[in-house]
Design brief:
The chain is α+β, with helices and mostly antiparallel strands. The chain has helices at 15-25, 30-37, 41-48, 58-71, 76-112, 115-142; strands at residues 147-151, 156-158, 162-169, 174-177, 180-182, 189-195, 199-208, 214-223.
Length: 226
């Protein structure tokens, strides 16, 4: 009978992990090692965290690594060789990932620029334009017309029992003063001399398009009793 057993596969340590492991085994802090090498502690951190893209130029990085390996009692030549191989693999992997991202981008772009996608996009755009146009058209039809009353001003005090109502509205509207029809000219201008009573007179001026709400303006005119 043949038996099977599982064996745990140990992960391969990177150069940075080995450097950190040996440094900690010697009881040397990263700051102390940096002082011994007379360099910025940031470089040792970059080495131990395998951040190759942030290291200085290759010749300077190798010199630092050789010195660091010596104080950790490691073989400098072996450390440099591992560093070069890991750095090469790192950049190859990154370039491959970048190519894959670019490939995915162009694939997505081609999908969006396909004839079917373009046709659907144009149809959707036309639909949106029509909806916006219809919205403006309905709003224009349903909204009350403009109505400006130039004379008289509100709360007007008059000594005469007549007052001129004068103003302007839009073309082709139904215009009323105190619910009585009033005609306007082709430009929407209107004028009417209205008889008043003694005391307070409330004048109601309304304008309405065929399918819209009415726009109403009130003017209060007080005729003196004297």
């Amino acid at each position: 009978m043949t038996g099977f057993f599982q064996k745990k596969i140990e992960a391969i340590e990177t150069l940075g992990e080995r450097l950190k492991k040996h440094r900690e085994a010697k009881g040397v802090s990263r700051e102390k090692a940096a002082r011994m090498l007379n360099i910025n502690v940031r470089y040792l951190k970059l080495f131990e965290e395998d951040k190759y893209e942030y290291l200085p130029a290759n010749i300077y990085a190798i010199n630092i690594l050789r010195s660091y390996a010596r104080i950790l009692d490691l073989n400098p030549a072996t450390a440099v060789d591992v560093f070069q191989k890991e750095k090469t693999l790192f950049y190859k992997t990154r370039r491959r990932a970048e190519r894959e991202r670019i490939s995915d981008f162009y694939l997505l772009l081609n999908r969006f620029l396909s004839p079917n996608a373009l046709r659907n996009a144009i149809i959707f755009l036309i639909f949106c334009v029509l909806i916006v146009y219809l919205g403006f058209a309905v709003n224009r039809i349903a909204s009350p017309p403009e109505l400006v009353v130039d004379s008289p001003p509100d709360n007007f005090l008059s000594e005469s029992e007549q007052v001129e109502i004068r103003g302007k509205t839009e073309k082709e509207v139904t215009l009323t003063i105190n619910d009585r029809p009033l005609l306007s000219d082709r430009e929407g201008n209107f004028a009417l001399t209205l008889d008043l009573q003694k005391g307070l007179n409330v004048i109601k001026i309304s304008a309405q398009k065929k399918y819209s709400k009415a726009r109403t303006v009130y003017r209060k005119v007080v005729v003196s009793n004297e």
